[in-house]
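Translate structure to sequence.
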């Protein structure tokens, strides 16, 4: 579906002279990524709205998107799997926050475990996203800062 819509949009742009015909594949791929990302964002916000967790949804997206960019890790084979993983992760977070009674020590322990994982493992290698050796230290620092900001 995303490939079809992206193909139609990029073809229209090419016909209208907005983009060069030689660049149509690059634009098609870019449009696919934008549409997939928008679907994921809208899905998380919709779940937040349904469960009365809109602030939680916004905080999740503001932290998750940049953190994910710098930590690497799991990359799904399809857009639907990627979005499903993100949606399930957010829905699980909403359920845990709404159902569990977190005390300060439990929250602190969970936060500390996350910090240890990020500092120890980030950025995680992935064949789909190569990271130059000289950028690894920078990505780890940025991911650590993003995670540190997430004390909410």
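Result:
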């Amino acid at each position: 579906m995303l490939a079809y819509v992206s193909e139609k949009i990029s073809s229209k742009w090419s016909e209208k002279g907005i983009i060069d015909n030689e660049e149509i594949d690059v634009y098609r791929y870019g449009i696919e990524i934008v549409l997939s990302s928008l679907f994921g964002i809208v899905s998380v916000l919709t779940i937040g709205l349904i469960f009365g967790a809109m602030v939680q949804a916004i905080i999740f997206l503001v932290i998750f998107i940049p953190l994910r960019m710098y930590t690497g890790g799991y990359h799904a084979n399809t857009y639907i799997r990627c979005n499903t993983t993100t949606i399930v992760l957010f829905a699980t977070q909403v359920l845990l926050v709404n159902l569990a009674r977190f005390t300060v020590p439990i929250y602190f322990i969970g936060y500390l475990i996350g910090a240890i994982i990020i500092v120890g493992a980030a950025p995680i290698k992935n064949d789909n996203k190569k990271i130059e050796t000289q950028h690894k230290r920078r990505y780890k620092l940025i991911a650590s800062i993003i995670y540190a900001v997430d004390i909410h």
